Amino acid sequence: MANLTTYDPDDVSAVFAGIPIAGYADGTFVEIEQDEDDFSLTVGSDGEACRAKTNNRAASMTVTLLQSSATNDLLSAKRNADILTPSGDGIGAFMVKDNSGTTVCNAQKAWIVKPPAVVYSRGVEARAWTFKTDSMDWFVGGN
Q: What are the backbone angles phi and psi of residue 76, rounded to the nearest 5°?
């Protein structure tokens, strides 16, 4: 008999620079993707192949919030601090953890790439914040 597991989106926690991220939009609310493949492949004209380790652990992360989320204010303040200070006050740790499973993505140095697009309509819109890191540690597990 197969085991029955449960995924709960409320058990996914994200933190940037000590700011707990909350007020997620409906649908996809966290997306993390490594910028480059772990290995590149070169194939010679005679078919001999060799792979090269890229050693690039840079990643892009997107967190999508409701326009009403108070986290938007905190992220805006962090971004403004990064732009206005030469010391990189907007750089901080970024972590996403699935507490109902075993997936953890962690970066010691991350920053906000740009502010989200601001859209207004009849309904509540989303604000997609994009982050970047030069080195993401990954463990993609199950629930």
A: -60, -45
Domain that holds residue 84: 9-139
Instruction: Give the three-class secondary structure for 86.
Output: coil
Let me know if residue 80 belongs to a domain.
Answer: yes
Q: Is residue 57 part of a domain?
A: yes
Q: Give the C-alpha separation, 45 to 62, whole Å.
A: 40
Q: Specify which residues 105 forms β-bridges with.
A: 96, 138
**Which CATH number do you get for residue 101?**
2.30.110
Nearby residues of 134 by Cβ (< 8 Å), 6 or more positions away: 57, 58, 109
Query: Within a domain: residue 129?
Result: yes
- Running DSSP on this structure, what letter comes out for residue 26? S
At residue 62's C-alpha, the angle toward residues 57 and 65, to 5°, is 155
Reported pTM: 0.90
For residue range 77-129, list pLDDT tens digits in order.
Answer: 999 999 998 887 899 999 999 999 999 999 999 999 999 999 999 999 999 99
Contact by Cβ (8 Å): 58, 124? no
Distance between CA 88 and CA 82 in Å, rounded? 5
**Cα maximum dimension of the chain:** 61
